[in-house]
Amino acid sequence: MADSLDRLFAAVSDLKKGDPTRSRTARLMRSGRSKIAKKLGEEAVEVVIDAIHGDREAVVRESADLLYNLVVLWVSIGIRPEDVWAEMRRREEMFGIAEKLPKSEAAMPARRKVVALEMRRAHKRR
Questions:
Q1: Is residue 66 part of a domain?
Q2: Is the Cα torsion angle 82, 65, 98, 76 positive or negative in sign?
C-alpha cells in the first residue's frame, strides 16, 4: 500500500502546477487548502454513510477518493508520505501497530481554534 500511496504522491506533486483546465488535481490545488480540506471531509463522510449502509463496493470506491484527497492535502501542506510512515512507526513502538494515541489530557495537544469552512449565510425559504 505504501508503494501505491508513494506513486500517487509523486503524481499529485507533478500535477500541482499543471494546467487546471486539463487536470482535476491542478484545479483542486489552485482552489486552496480550505477547499481541499473540505473535499477530504466530504469524502470521509461518504465512506461513513456507505459503511453504515453496508455497501462494500461503495466503501471501496469512496475510500479510494478519500485517499486521493488526503494525498492532495499532504502535497498542499508539504507533508511527504515518509513523514506519515515515520509517525506510524513511532506510534507502533509506543502502543502497537493497531492502536491509536491515547486521548488523555497529557497526550493531547492544545485545542485548536475551530474555523468555518464557508462564510455564506443560509437564507430561509418562504
A1: yes
A2: positive
Answer yes or no: is 33 within a domain. Answer: yes
Read off the pLDDT of residues 89-117 as tens digits, 9 standing for 90 and up.
Answer: 988 888 777 666 676 644 555 555 655 55
In whole angstroms, give the CA distance from residue 19 to residue 68: 18
Domain count, the chain: 1
18 DSSP 8-state letter: S
Q: Give, in order, the Cα–Cα distances in Å from 31 to each of 13, 17, 35, 76.
A: 15, 12, 6, 11
Question: What separation in angstroms does the CA of 36 have from each of 62, 81, 97, 121?
Answer: 16, 17, 29, 21
CATH assignment at residue 70? 1.10.287.1080
pLDDT 10s digits, 45-95:
999 999 999 999 999 999 999 999 999 999 999 999 999 999 989 888 887
